[in-house]
Amino acid sequence: MEWSITEVARATGTTSRTLRHYGQLGLLEPSRTGHGGYRYYDEAALLRLQRILLLRDLGLGLPAIGEVLAGQRDITAALETHLDLLEQERDRLERQIASVSLTIRKRRGGEQLMAQEMFDGFDHTQYKEEVEQRWGKETYAASDSWWRGLGKDQQQAFHAAAEALGTDWTDAAHRGVDPSSQEAQALAHRQLEWLRGIPGTPGGGSAGPTKEYFVGLAEMYVADPRFGKNYGGEQGAAFVRDAMTVYAERHL
């Protein structure tokens, strides 16, 4: 059997644009291309797509996914590995749910909260290895030290600023704002200033991130759904990328 690109996009909850992007990266080739360049996918392609989507849900970026797919030829063994990782993630989420539920019950009952109970299942160092691989151990150490040194109020203020920036980006994208417009460029400048305030950011500090890092990060927002979800999904992330790229060309 074969499925059209539209049918596959609908079944997986993704978009035809995303599937074509996977094809351009060599991650997912169609089984054949019909009249007018229309793409079709067979069962083998769907199995490969399932692996890609599973790996994305586990937090891997597209380059890393390509490496995994290139290194594993046994599809069943690969799926068993994915299943094991998914079960680990399920266990972690169940621990977080239990932790938050316990916190709610204790607060309602006026009981003493215990730190080890409140933060069971939470781990702010879960991306340590990825950060060290991408940008080096010194980058992770500097950022981690800075974050640990912040007080609770400062950490909350940082999260609030990031959420406000993400909300403003998403709103502008939904309104169809031109990435090169004054409004979008003001948001890009806020993004630069936000990054500048994070010690350890490659090319960061008082001078701000370098052009290469700023543009590379913009591309990551589109390529990695963990980042894109902060801007309303793939479409919003694409708007952020385009605006940041324009800003970099003009000012960096």
From TrEMBL:
Pfam family, one: MerR_1
GO molecular function: DNA binding; DNA-binding transcription factor activity
Keywords: Coiled coil, DNA-binding
InterPro entries, per the entry: DNA-bd_dom_put_sf (IPR009061), MerR-type_HTH_dom (IPR000551), MerR_fam (IPR047057), TipA-like_antibiotic-bd (IPR036244), TipAS_dom (IPR012925)
Record carries keyword Coiled coil: yes
Coiled-coil positions: 76-103
Gene3D superfamilies recorded: 1.10.1660.10, Antibiotic binding domain of TipA-like multidrug resistance regulators
Location of the HTH merR-type domain: 1-71
Lineage top rank: taxon: Bacteria
Record flagged with keyword Coiled coil: yes
Name of the protein described by the UniProt record: MerR family transcriptional regulator
